[in-house]
From TrEMBL, chains A, B:
<dbReference type="InterPro" id="IPR042257">
    <property type="entry name" value="DGOK_C"/>
</dbReference>
<dbReference type="InterPro" id="IPR042258">
    <property type="entry name" value="DGOK_N"/>
</dbReference>
<dbReference type="InterPro" id="IPR007729">
    <property type="entry name" value="DGOK"/>
</dbReference>
<protein>
    <submittedName>
        <fullName>2-dehydro-3-deoxygalactonokinase</fullName>
    </submittedName>
</protein>
<dbReference type="Pfam" id="PF05035">
    <property type="entry name" value="DGOK"/>
</dbReference>
């Protein structure tokens, strides 16, 4: 079978053996924005046309922002709780090289603050990971929009998204603090002490809006160097994200599983440690496994 | 005497009678940025040269960002607690039309989160207001960088700054939420229900970073119209600002005094009401009175 994880900045395509092993993979830096109807199929034909030709029987599955309103076709959100079989039964079909290709739906849920929440793409990764986790667990998937996910008995029970990465990027590029931060040059190690100080500060009196201004004042009095300020801000935001997460049943679900690239995963490990919450690392590239698992469920349903 | 409140976007100059009455006032939209040494004196000569000519005996006082590192000359920060007489004794002198002009120092303080805090310009407004308040009070001065101020026995005991207005501007102009918000057209009334819903949401489970993403999800499901989303965001941020403020001794200091232009003051009144905290409006243009008060203290010191 063929699986494609197509997000806002590009796609990763996998050619999978019958046992789920990755036989081949390709990455293309072409996000979903600025594509016209018809472009999606043409792009896949161009980049994985040989796979489609050679592997005519297996299912083709796509997940990620490709199923959003701005994507190929909208694959409606499924409300939580959701099991892998629910996803397999609610695929949205498109035509690719004269055969159907299936788009995985996103998930929605209700949050305790009264608002809705959504994910698209992570659900496939989560079910890819879940094969290697206990059925009841907590996941942390940090990034531009960090996801905290509560798994129970192999189903996604609920989740909460925090705009941590995006707010960090906004504050680093625009406004008062931007001129006062200087991320360390590539290859330089992060300032771990400043990061941990930021996590600690997130728990002190005052809210995030107050804590942000403290960075400005500390810079003004040279209490904080510019690269340290960037790591302190990072710790402050991640600290607020984790403190804003409902840990109600966390302990009973075992350590939180962090799914992120190594640099970001390291920050979250440090933050969880500072908060006294047990955490472990999950495998990074779980989308291929999730697509394989969903593909197998679809075959079983058809069989 | 002559008083000038010179902030980042322009200055307001006041010609004051011996009893403090404002005899004349002028506004010039010329902020402190992009000025070279020498420009400040030349600008004042150009815009209030006639006052300087006619009123050669009284003191000339300047407050605001003009005393910052990016201003005319840096007037060092005085650490809290600070009384009006402390300000009067720590002016920084510059030469204007062959006479001394005095720049009011800014204030600094230590915050319970371990960071520093600063203000510049507000201290003069506060002592202008303090003449009309009990000596022990709490003030709220909302804006790009909102100030909460604890007055005790006529002195500024401490204060805390929140980046509320700036974060609202960043989120409205850049990033994911910007495209989903549409502030109501000028002249249209705010959506008070959406604003109050935002204040309420700020107290629910999840932190600010989680609550922000809820606006995105609610827009996606059309639970929220674009102009309502802007007011909900405003309520959410102001709610987090006020909940992040330490109200320890607030009740014993009487109602919080809000100092802001009418539109913003209305939002804060609604937010305080939603939180069950008594609030009242203070006079808006208190800088002239503060400059007058400081000028009189300087005269008494010299006498």
């Amino acid at each position: 079978m063929i699986g494609v994880d197509w997000g806002s900045s590009g796609f990763r395509a996998y050619r999978l053996a019958a046992d789920g092993a990755i036989r081949d993979r390709r990455s293309v830096a072409c996000g979903i924005a600025d594509l016209q109807p018809g472009d999606h199929a043409a792009l896949l034909q161009h980049d994985i046309g040989d796979w489609l030709q050679q592997d005519r029987d297996g299912p083709v599955l796509l997940c990620g922002m490709i199923g959003s309103r701005q994507g190929w076709v909208e694959a409606p959100y499924l409300p939580c709780p959701v099991a892998p079989a629910d996803l397999a039964r609610h695929m949205t079909s498109v035509t690719l090289a004269d055969r159907p290709a299936l788009i995985v739906p996103g998930l929605s849920c209700e949050r305790p603050d009264g608002s809705a929440d959504v994910m698209r793409g992570e659900e496939t990764q989560i079910f890819g990971l879940a094969a290697t986790l206990a059925g009841t667990a907590m996941l942390c998937m940090p990034g531009t929009h960090s996801k905290h996910v509560w798994l129970r008995d192999g189903r996604i029970e609920r989740f909460a998204t925090a705009m941590t990465g995006e707010v960090f990027a906004l504050l680093s590029r625009h406004g008062l603090l931007a001129a006062m931060l200087r991320p360390a040059p590539a290859g330089t190690d992060m300032d771990a002490a400043a990061f941990v100080a930021g996590v600690a500060r997130s728990g002190r009196p005052g809210g995030l809006l107050q804590h942000l201004f403290g960075i400005r004042a500390d810079r003004l009095f040279d209490r904080l160097a510019a690269p340290a300020a960037a790591d302190l801000l990072s710790g402050l935001l991640i600290g607020h994200e984790l403190r804003g997460t409902d840990w109600g049943a966390a302990g009973s679900r075992g350590p939180v599983t962090i799914v992120a690239a190594p640099d970001l995963a390291r920050r979250y490990h440090m933050a969880y440690e500072a908060l006294g919450i047990a955490a472990q690392s999950g495998p990074e590239d779980a989308a291929a496994r999730g697509l394989y698992r969903l593909g197998r469920l679809i075959r079983e349903d058809l069989a």
